Structures are given as structure tokens and as C-alpha cells.
Amino acid sequence: MNLFDHAREERLKTEQPLAARMRPRTLEEYVGQDHILAPGRLLRRAIQADRIASLIFYGPPGTGKTTLASVIANATESWFEQLNAVLAGVADIRRVTEEAQQRYGEHGRRTILFVDEVHRWNKAQQDALLPWVENGTVVLIGATTENPYFTVNRALVSRSRVFQLKPLEDEHLRQIARQALRDPERGYGARAIELRPDALDHLVGVANGDARAVLNALELAVETTPPDEAGRIVIDLGVAEESIQRRAVLYDKEGDYHFDTISAFIKSLRGSDPDAAMYWLARMVYAGEDPRFLFRRMLIFCGEDIGLADPHAMMVCTAAAEAFDRVGMPEGNYHLGLTALYLATAPKSNSVMGFFDALAAVEKEREAEVPNHLRDASRDQEGFGHGIGYQYPHAYRDHWVAQQYLPDSLRGKVFYRPGHLGHELGVAESVRRHREAQLAAALDEQAPGAPPEILSFSPQDRGLERWLARTLNGVGSHLAQLREALFAAAGCQRHWRVLDLTADTGLLTWEALRQAPEGGVWALVSTSPAASALQAQAAAVPDLRRPEVLVGAPVDLPRLVAGSADPATRFDLVVGRQVLTPAVDRPGLLRPCAEVLAPGGVMVLCENLPRQTQRLHDLLPSAALDAALRERLREAEEALYADPDDPWVHWDLATAAAWFEAAGLRLQRSEELPLEFPVTLTAGLIERWFTPAPAGHRPAYCEHLRRRLDEEEVGRVAAAFRLLAGEAVTWHSRAVVMVARADSPPR
User: Fold this and answer.
1) Where residue 582 falls among pLDDT bands split at 50, 70, 90?
2) Cα(32)–Cα(62) distance, rounded to whole angstroms?
3) What is the CA angle 353-355-359, rounded to 5?
4) Residues sharing a CB contact under 8 Å with residue 383, sequence separation 6 or more, in sequence order
5) CATH fold of 256-443, please?
6) CATH architecture of 33-164
7) For site-directed labelling of 113, which of 56, 254, 582, 629 has its Cα 20 to 30 A away?
8) pLDDT digit string (tens) for 183-199?
9) Could you give the CA distance from residue 469 to residue 471 in angstroms, rounded to a whole number?
């Protein structure tokens, strides 16, 4: 580097925009995206261990994709190359790969290639990179604002982990702005600046989750505001409004936002929800969607979802489209809104002003995401889970079902108020009843709501999948039933950190590993031999995905996690089977589990219900005992399960809810499961029933019987059971799956 190059670089450091100067350099400086970067998650562990595989970061502008790549560049020992797909072509790919081969051959050093705007490369350019990614010459990190499943070569996607970055929360944006004001080297820490709270609120609100927008507006405000007499630069609301005036709506004409929003609009029309229909229409109009495209989709809707139920719908839609062609914008908004209202309220006022109320809501309110079940499912249901959970109204009585169509932040918002004249006179009552039913469904804690969006994806490891399949299938049918019910209730997401409280058998551990491939799995075992056995089983699992084994009891969890590889780890999901039943102090056992749970994390426990377990007397043939003794045996055994002083059996869901509450958790829901499975009555098992328990252990079955039966009667019962040795019987019992959580959902 000559003196001129050095001078130019030094000048660029000071003349770069604030957003570039404040780009985080380490994971500790990085703000937001906790769903992929919180302590314990797979991506964070991979960066810290310098074990990066090919990655694709997908998300809106200003969410930190390029920043995350620069953090990786600062953390890795590999050679880091950067290309911008807008400027680079096949010749650049050839140069990078040739240098990477030479570098690896001579020095054994890997090359990481970061490609910004990777979707800008055409198929030939992406194909040129594929062989070098496939043979490991380069590790690809791609950043894109477009859905990678449709803009990036499928072969590249299949060899990469895909992580979806979300718009930043308001508090994250405030933190970023404050960092810029405090930093004396890269920001404005060396200058006297007062940023008024209402001005900061305006910058954050209009930025709409975009960190770059906040920093650019802050820079404009600071650099254009003269200091006062005391030398301070005061940024009040007026200055902030001049610096950033209009909210940027995320939208594209051919990508995800386009397809997801039009999908939500059509589904809202089909669901006879005029409020949601006008909201999604307003989103598209505000973002600049072609109104003719909207009329075309509504004309299709007339034929597809209304038909002869209201033959006037097609005429109204056609007439409105022709009127729009004559009038144009902005007055054409009336015709768009009127058509949407008619179609949403058709069978299967100044009411049109509700559309402009919706437009005002889009402009004033922070932009809310499309609920996942309303997103377009035809393009990326497998990758991101879009469209899962949508209830098709035509499958229900009266072609309507109560489900959420508006975003969570606008749930219950009313845009359309039916008039009381003409056609709307008959519509008003129907709309009112639908709103009441949807509001009731939204307030029902048991209602599942919109399923979460999948935020990450890993290429399939076929060897590991086969190993997991063999492992997961190697348990009894009733245990598999319990495992499936537990994870179904948990709603585990791919990027979650999962802790198995009862990992001695691995029953839940391997399912957690399968369901959270981009998160992480921790396994709590009771003894060192159990840990060795689990670790031996896990030898088939790649290092980064291998469960971290903790040895101890649930009460030791805070200490064990503090001494682990990443002490800051907190778990999105804690699972366990038969955790509470054998414990004496149940709240005391749950408290340390709650301590290691992430804010809003979920705990799902599966417990056998002792009072509803198999009664042993029912296993005896009718001729084994006389009627009088059989009845006395039944009474003695039922007394065992009705003992109010025995905490092992005397508990129910209300009791369990109190245990969770004492630990700082809320029992949200529960599900009882009937179980039926074969059991062989071995001689050893029967002897244990009729052998007194050692001191300090729970009384054996025979000791409970002696409370109601004399010694001779207990002997006759034992003799009757010994005749059953070696027989296979069907064992009946019940279990309960309990879901407890903190106040907000995990990120």
C-alpha cells in the first residue's frame, strides 16, 4: 500500500456515513436478531468456534445482514473475501476460487467468500460458484433481500444454512441510536448533543425496523443543526421530522412481500373479513402496487369464490374497474375500496371511507408483519413454514370460520362500519356476528393463533437423518406417543435452544436434535455413566450439533449452565418426562428450571397421573380370589390412590398450576393422554410388589395392602399374583402433557 492509498483509506474512515462507521465489529456489539444469535444458538456457537459452513442471510434492508458478515470476518481465522453481486461477475469468481485453491494448498487456510446482493447474480454466475462451494474450496456467505428459495440457485441453497433476519424492534433501534451518540471514536460521543425523547421516538417509529434509516436520519439531524449558545446541538421533534418524514413500507412487485400481501388480501376476502381486506389493500396501495393488478385479482375472485351466490359481484367489480380507468388516482381509491368491501361482504353508508382509515393506519402505525398462516404457501411452505395453520373457510359450515386475518398489533381494529341502508342493511348483522366470534377466538388462551414462521433452514444431512430415524423408532409405541404429544404441544421451532431434563434414556434428546437443527440441545443426565452412554450415542452427530451433556439434578441447573461452554445460554424450550411425580419439593425443583429459561420460554412436562394408573387387582382372573377378598383388595388398593397425605399420588392440574406459579411460570394448557401398552409380569416384578421397601423408600404395594388386609389375606393375594408370572397383560394408564411459559413468546 502506497502513501496515497493509505491517505485515502484514512480519509474514508472519517468521511464514511454514520451507519457505516457504527457497523458492529463483534458479536457483543451486534444488536437484535436474538432468534439466531442469542447465546447458545447454533450460529453464534459456529462463529465463536470459527466453524462456519455456507450461509445465506435473508431479510429486509437495514436488518444487519452485511454487518453480520463483517462480524464473522473479524472473528474468523480464515481468509475473508467480499464481492458485490451487482459489480462482480464470472471473472471475479474465477479469481477468488483460484486464489482460494492456492491459499489452501500452500498454507492450509480456508477462504470465506461473502457475496452481497447474491440474488443479483444470474443462473450462470451462480452456477460458476457452485463447484467450488461443493468441494469446499470456498465457504459462501450470501446476503439477499429476496427470497433465496426463488432467487438463488437451488443447489446453492441446498448446501447452505438459511437464516432469516427480521426488522429490528423499536428498543433495538433506540439502543443503536444511543450507541452512536455515546461512541467518541466512530459516532458523536465527542460532541455535545441532546436528543429529545419525542425526537428519538419519531426517528425510531418512522424507520420501521431499519437500523440504517435511524442512523442516516440521526446523522442528517446532527450535521444540519447548528449548536446553541452553550455549544450544544439540540435535536427536537421538529428537527427529527425534517430528517425523516415518510415511513418506508417493505414491498416488492415480484417477490415475497408482493405474494404474501396479495395472498392475505384474497384470503381475507374469502373469509368475509372486510377489516382485514381493507388493511391489506391499503398496504399494497400505499406501497405503489398497480391498481389494475388489484382489480384483475378481484375479478378472478368474483368467479372463484362468489360465483352465482351474488351475480352482481362481477358487474360491480367490472364497473368499478372501468370507472377507475376513466378517473385515475388518487380519486380511484374510492373504486378500489368499494369493490373490496362489496366482495368481502357478499354471500358464500360512507363505509368506503374505512379504506382511507386503513391507509391512515398504515401511515401512522408501525408496519405489522403478515401473520404466518396468511402468507403465500405455494412458494416456500417447506422452507419458512408460510401458510401453515390457515383454515380454509369453504371447509366449514356457512363457508366461514373464526380465525385471525389482521396482524397481531391490529387485532380487533375496526375499519369497516356497515351502513343501515340498502344492501348493507342485511350485511351489518353478519359482520357483527363474525367480529364477535373472531374476537372471542383471539381472546381464548387455548386457541393456537397464527403458527410461527420458520426463521432458519439447514441442508439435509441424510446420514444423520437415517441415524435419528433409527434412534427415534427404537422405543415402545407408548413412549413414542408421549414424545410426539410433548413436542406437538411445545411447538418447537428450528432455531430454539432445547434442554432435556430427563436425558438418561435419550427419549426426548434425539427428537429435540431433529426438531431444532439450527438451535442447540442440552441434555441433563443424573450420573456420569449415563453421560458417557449418551455421549457415546452422540458420536454419530456432527460436533456443532452434538448435544451438550450436563451431569446433575434439575436443582443444579443454574450452576451447571454457568459452568458450561456458554454461561449466558438460556433455553427457549425445557422438556422432561416424569420430572415432578417422584419429587418431594415440586416448586423447589421448578424454580431452577425457570431460572435457565429464556424470557418467554416454554416448559413442557409429561407426567404419569398416578391416580389413573393401572389397578393391579384388575389383572387377576375372576376365579383367583373369592368375591369378598377381591372386594377388600379393591378397596385397599383404591385407598392407596386416595390418600390425601401422600403427595406422590394426591395431586391434580390445579395443584400443578400452583407449583408452576410458585416457580414464576404460568400453566397455559394441558392435555391428558390415555395409554395402553403390553407388560410382561415377570417373577421379579411380582416379588418387588410383595417385598417390603428398604428404609427411606416409598412403601411397597404389600405394605399399602396391610393397612386394610391382615397378613393371611395379603399372603393369599401374593399367591394369586405369583400364578401370573410370565404372562403378558395390557397395561392401562393416563399421562398429562403440561405447557407452562413466561409472559411473552420466545424469540
Assistant:
1) confident
2) 11
3) 115
4) 149, 162, 454, 457
5) Zinc Finger, Delta Prime; domain 3 (1.20.272)
6) 3-Layer(aba) Sandwich (3.40)
7) 254
8) 888 888 778 877 888 87
9) 5
